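Re: folding output
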Amino acid sequence: MLYRDGLHLLNRNRMGVWIPGLALAAVSCFTSSLGAQITQAANTTAPPPTVPRPLTLAERGDIFMARKMYRDAIDTYKQAPASAQMLNKIGIAYHQLAELDTAGKYYQRAFKADPTFSDAINNLGTIYYSKKSFRRAISEFKKVLRLKPDAAATWANLANAYFERKQYELSSEALQKALALDPGVLENRGTVGSLVQDRNVADRAKYHYYLAKSFAKNGKNADALQYIRKALEEGFKERQKFLEEPEFAALRDDPDFKLLMATEPKVL
């Protein structure tokens, strides 16, 4: 009724006489306004949702790596241009399959493609480490650190290689540098990205003793206690070192430390 009343009021002159032509004009004006509003509304509707871009070959390969589908990852990476980064990724996939010789060849190809790509050099060092060629591993890790002195994972790898050569002081120094750069470096997992970090050592009891010593020296008492416990559980025989060496002095009043020293943990 409001629409009709509106037209009715618009169609009478001041004397109250009905004017038909004015009625048509009013209808035309109203419909034009309504059409403009509809057009404006149509033009302001939300745009359609954007279509996600297709994954790159590198991204598809990374998904296969995360799913531990290493053969599929290799096949996918090989379809991409052979950049240093891509060759390194292929090397890591072969590394995960324990095909060390093939992995090493791809790391070498990555290094030749870009001699400044330190991740490939580090990863080649871990191949030598896995083959117990510790001298060559040390040489590769040092190359990395000349290019990238803040590479905490490589410092940790170097510490392990020195440890296996029984160069314990050098190992401790390298580990101190790794922990100073990244206090969580020993908890990192560097085998599915661009950099491989190897923490396998033969004498784990002694290795954990040195880790405890490094953490204690840095005031990380909780971590030091954790690795003292691990060292003892793995058969570390030189318990007296914890009671005599100056690095452990700050721990000696700690109740947990006293308990560790007073009990004989079960060797795992």
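--- second protein (sequence, then structure) ---
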Amino acid sequence: MRAVLTAISLSNLDRPARVIAITSSTPGEGKTTFASALGGLLTKMNTSRRVLLVDLDLRQAKLFQALGLKDRGGTIDEYLMGTKTLDECIRRHDISGVDYICARPDTPNAPEILESHAMKAALATFADRYDLVLLDSPPVMAVSDARIISQLADYTIFVVHWAKTPRDVVKSAVTALLSVTDRVGIVINKVNLAKHAMYEYGDYGDYYSRYRGYYGAAYGNTAKKASRNRPPESSWRLHSKFARRLFMPRLLTWSY
């Protein structure tokens, strides 16, 4: 999580991201859980940092469940329509300390709401009041909403379920996002550490063997032991080439 924030911060030093959209290719890849965890961690890391988590998945609205809430309170559509004030809609999560605004599932006319002047004005207001605004967005391949939200955000985090989401689906979703924004970072989520260790990324023996002079002799001995258990080169190079082709031009972070 810290690596994600660092990568986002360094992506554009002249224009730091204040509004960050979080999406995925398909449902079930963990984007809402990731958004909730990121918001909570950023708040815990710096109690003076003001973080707002906004549910903009106006069709499913799963933030309510991810935070373990009993009551949604005022929703984002009620604020945009003017039936409730911002203070009536913003609530604080007792456990993480992050502020949040929930959405109402099956909100009608979702694309029109997201493209409205009221939405743009709301995001500007959020950015004025908070240091970071995290937007939990719908999946890219399901509806057009995610692309609309990415246009409104300063940066988009794209969550991929490791070893499950088909590569062609990921490529299609990333291509769709890149058609509307050039600030997209990829987070690999739900990584199986046992299987992940078989590939080049995460093989600590390989890293130690390359940099044993830097780490010292003790680490060199560890590297030799680890290298004996490394799978044949063909098995881990396949993963390496795939990652370079698809992900390396953008942010690549392994989230466990």
